[in-house]
Each structure stands twice: as structure tokens, then as C-alpha cells.
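Task: complex structure prediction.
Instruction: return C-alpha cells for all chains below.
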Amino acid sequence: MTTEEKYVAAVYLVVFIVLLAYVFIIALKLQRLERELAELAELALRKKEEPERKAVAVG
Amino acid sequence: MAAAIALIFFYAPLDQDGLNQKIFYFHVPIAFTAYACFGWGGWKALRHLWKRDEDADLESYVAIHLGVIFGVLTLVTGSIWARYRWGHWWVWSEDQLVLFLVLFLFYCAYFMLRYSLPPGPQRANLSAVYALFGVALIPVSILAIRLSQRFIHPIAFDEGGPNMAGSQFFTFCVAVLAMFAVAATLYHLELAGKRLDIRLRELREALQ
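Output:
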């Protein structure tokens, strides 16, 4: 590989790595949001069930 | 992007710069994308101040964030090219380089301003005003090569049009479109993530 080829490869590699890192960070964030959404869905279900149980106990 | 890379390496002919000229097809479209992101961020900032569109503040922030990332890439790819061509990573006497660095640092400071304030209308308004000020630097940075008396940085476009062969110009246009497409995809991806984050926070507050 000549010096010129090394410089050209370095430029394309840097762009590829930076864009890949950006996509990876966004993917990690989306994973976190997915986990949070699952937690909230569970919380919402529990909240929905709580009044029903209370209603049964009183009745 | 694959089409652009294929055109760059298999279609566009080499000029007197040799293989090193292939960097131009990535470096310049990346710089144009950075300018476009900053410009889009400024437009959204204006919409926020003008129409009181709350969502425009988030869109402006995401555009500027992407602009800074493409700005880093512009500086890095330009420096690698300069190291080979000029023998230096950076030339302080070159107006276009310094003005682009000023523009980049100006938008880096945007994040310092934004995160030094608590979330709310004041932060959104101040960020929007700051983003609008930065827009004034974009034409100065682009036209710096015309304002400069010393021409070290190559001139790809002048009054007579592009300084390159038709096939090179076609490849360059495809590379610009590819880079814009990448930026638009990343913009929508990040924006969707941020919007989802906000909605989830609201939902959590409502449930607790």
C-alpha cells in the first residue's frame, strides 16, 4: 500500500467509523427506550389491576 | 452511498492530484452537509421564535448536533488530505480552514449554552437566538475562499462553474446527494429517539 493509498483509506475509514459509532449510540438509546417502555407498560397494567382488586375486596 | 463509493473508485477519472483527489468526493460533500445541517438548525430556530413551534426547538437541536458531527468529519478528513498534500495537518494562514473552525466552535458552544440552562421556554428561546446568529457565519465560511488573498485551499467551483470534468462533477453530485441522504436518515432517527424519550418521560410522570 502506498502512502497516498493509506491517506485515502484513512479518510474513508474515519468517516465509516464515526457514522457507525453514531448509529451504535442511537441503537443503544433505542434499546434503553424499549426497556423503559416495557417497564411503563407493566406499571400501567399494575395500576389498572389495583382498583379492580380493591373493588373485589370491598364487594 | 454504495453507488457514490462505486462511482468514486470505478468511474471518476483521476486528475493531476492523483489518488489523493478521491478524498475530495467525501470531504466536500461532508462539509456541505455540515453547512446544510447548521442552516436547517437555524431555520428551525427561526420557526421556533416566529411561530412558537415547541417541536422546532428539538428539531433545531438535533440538526445542530448532526452539523457538529459532520463538522468534526470535515475537519478530520480535511486535515488528513492537508497532511498528504501540504505536509501539515493544519494551516492557520488559510482563511477557509480557520473560518470553518470558528463556525464549528461556535456551534460547539451552542451545547454549553443549552445545557447550562434548565429545560423550558427560556432555554429554547436562547438556544434559538444563538443558532440564528451562527447562520450568519455559514456564508462567510463558504465565501472565505473568495475573500482570501492567498489560495492554498483548492477551488472546486468558481464563476465559470465546476473546475472538473463532467464525469467527476457527476460523481461529486451523487456523493453530495448520498451524504445528504445519510444526514437526513440520521436526523430522523435521532429525532424519533428524542421524541420517544420525551413521550416516555411524560407517561412516567402521569403514571407515578
